[in-house]
Every structure is written in C-alpha cells, then in structure tokens.
Write a structure and sequence with these properties.
Blueprint lengths: L7 E5 L4 H12 L3 E6 L2 H13 L5 E4 L7 H14 L5 E4 L15 H27 L5 E5 L3 H4 L5 H20 L6 E5 L7 H4 L13 H14 L7
Parallel strand pairs: 1-2, 1-4, 2-3, 4-5, 5-6
Helix pairs in contact: 1-8, 3-4, 4-6
C-alpha cells in the first residue's frame, strides 16, 4: 500500500525484456510498481522472484489487445483504492508478429498490433488521467522504436504503431500542458530482445546493449519528462 511519500509507477509490457528490467529497477529504487502484461505466468514469476528479495510489484494480467474501456475503468478504480495516487506510466508494451507486406498481412494481425500498441495504450492512459492529475509532477512516457525508420516497407502494423504513438503523445502533451501529466516519447535505441531477434535472427546478442542498459536510459528519460510552460 502506498503512503504519502512513496511514488507509484505503472509499466506496461512488464513481462517483456525491457519491461522486466524497468520493474526491477523501479522496485530497487523504492518505487511502488504496477506491472501490467498479458502473460500471467511471466508476471507471476517476476513477482515471486522480487518477493523473495523482499519487495514485489502489484501484477496486473491484462491484454492491451483485448481489453476495453470497462477493463481500464475497473483498473483505475482498483489503483485508486490500492495506492491512492499514480505518479507515472511507462508504456513499454510491444506487439510484433514479423515483417509482412501489406498485401499478405492477415487483417486480424493488423488489428491486434494496432490495438496492443496504440489503441490499448490510449484507452489505458485516458482512464488513468484523473489519477495522474492528482499527483504533482506526474508523467507519462511512451517507449518508441525509431518511428521514421519503421515507416517503410514490410513493417506493417508495428511500423504504423510507432508513428501513431508519436502523434498520440504529441496530442496528449498539448492537451495536458496546463493540467498534467507531462507526456513524452523516448527511443532507447537498439538493444537485444526476443522481439528484435525476429527481425535480425543472425545478430550477435553480445554486440548489442542489454535490456537492462536500455531500461536505465528509459528511466533517465522518464525522470526528465516535463510539461512545457503553461500560459
């Protein structure tokens, strides 16, 4: 349970390579962490490992590709009761099936990637805005993967999501300039993950930064997210 001084931060994609590293670092820093992911088994494993070390996140098994507005409203009510505050969100969830030409892209795959990567994060953020606005200096950070480079052949839904998230973050930042939270995007650059290996399977993992190094960069960027001066 959060007290008056402990910060609370929600991380999506918390069972992925980057998300897990983010949760570990936040917990180690004394932050109350809400770990959200569709993979219940991996969330439970992460919870048990951290609990054994003395402190664990609140795990929320929720699929951004399948959840609707009511699910997010219920989550907002639950977090309000559990913590009474929310200082920030880091959107680290990603859905990527593989490189595809649009001509051969299964429609359900397209819809799933957009729902998980863009619509779901929008609905989640929308539902939690009132809770975020109850905390001074709250912030939201969307992790992106080089939107310009992904807006090209074969990246399909995943590439569209990267451009869409950049536009969504810009819109939210403008709308929340006076009331908060502060909103921004951050591209941590290349790092090794199972998602990346689907595109570059021959790449040597040791030649890339680790997910933990990427998480450190993300948290540094998260700490610097600020609202532009309000008139």
């Amino acid at each position: 349970m959060n007290d008056d001084t402990t910060r609370a931060v929600l991380v999506t994609g918390a069972a992925g390579a980057l998300g897990t590293a983010l949760v570990r670092r936040l917990i180690a820093a004394g932050t109350d962490c809400i770990a959200l992911d569709k993979n219940r088994r991996k969330l439970e494993k992460l919870h048990d490992e951290l609990a054994a070390d003395g402190r664990a996140p609140l795990c929320v098994p929720l699929d951004l590709a399948g959840a609707g507005p009511d699910h997010y409203a219920e989550l907002a009510d639950s977090l309000t009761g559990e913590f009474g505050r929310l200082d920030g969100m880091i959107h680290a969830a990603a859905e990527f099936k593989g490189l595809r030409p649009v001509e051969h892209l299964p429609p359900d795959e397209w819809m799933q990637e957009l729902q998980a990567g863009l619509t779901g994060p929008m609905l989640l953020t929308r539902a939690l805005l009132p809770l975020l606005r109850g905390t001074e200096d709250s912030r939201v950070l969307f992790v992106v993967d080089d939107p310009d480079a992904r807006a090209c052949a074969y990246w399909a839904g995943y590439g569209v999501v990267q451009s869409g998230v950049r536009a969504l973050a810009s819109t939210l930042a403008a709308e929340c300039r006076k009331t908060g939270p502060a909103v921004d995007i951050f591209d941590p650059g290349a790092f090794y993950s199972p998602l990346r290996s689907r595109v570059w399977p021959a790449e040597d993992p040791s030649s890339l930064p680790t997910a933990d190094a990427a998480a450190e960069a993300v948290l540094e960027a998260f700490a610097k997210v600020e609202r532009p001066g309000a008139d």
